[in-house]
Amino acid sequence: MENIDNKHLSKELLEATTGADGAAIDIATTDQDLSVDTMYQQAALPSLGKQIFSVVQMEGPTAGLFNIKKHPTENKFVLLRNEAQVFESDPISTGLTQEVVQDIKSQYGKDSTQVIGTLLRGLSNAQENSRTLEFLEDNCLEVPDLDLTDSKSIETNMFEITQKVNELVLKANSLNMRTYEGFCVLPYFAGAAIAGLSNYVGGKEGEKDERGLFLAQIGQIKFYLNPDATSKTAYVGLKDSRNISKSSAVFGPFASQIVETMDPDSGELYYWIFNRFSITPSPLHEDGNEMLFKFDINVTV
Asked: What is the CATH number of the domain that holds 75?
């Protein structure tokens, strides 16, 4: 999920993107020939799960997460394993037909690749977001609610929210040092406290996503907006950008593709998305030594 910066590209690679006379290569014809599945695969629009969990590409039909911990009483280490929790690949009807895709290409020209890819990726992201929230709800340790003392002050709200979140991150590190890098998924009304001060606490350049789920980074904690506007629950966990074994969970993409189907009566081509992935908690996330937490945020009237 890293952004490629031109300064890191080799001179040969940069030169290969121009023609013999130094002019840019005309790739419009090639773009127009891209399949719908290729447009979907090229779209860079990460879901909530791909942002808050470490992402590891799964290579087989089954997989597991491994970690080790020190034995509580003996002078040895214990190998831990969690079986990857794979979701069924429920087909997603896109509502797009071949005719609609052709109309979009005619209207947007070379930009149609991004338009179509983003539309389709947004549909599969909605599925991934839903499964991510289900996972968090099922696996997070419930802790006492947070009662905001002054709902009209975004400064006070931000202070109280960040204090609660950092206390939970410290709790996850209280028995064993893991990482102080973490995430928090906030409900809509609480997210306003972070978004309202984004000019002062905003994240690094280039980290905002097109769905607007990323709010800001404060210290070592990244804050995201809960895509479920009806929720009042906040979710907190660990995500180490350099060491996957220190993260609370792993998102594992298996297979994701666009499949064409034909209406037997009209002969019209329709597009469906099949998206199979897993979300698996760290083996170190155990009773009494948790790495995932949740709490409700209450607003005083």
From this structure: 3.90.1690
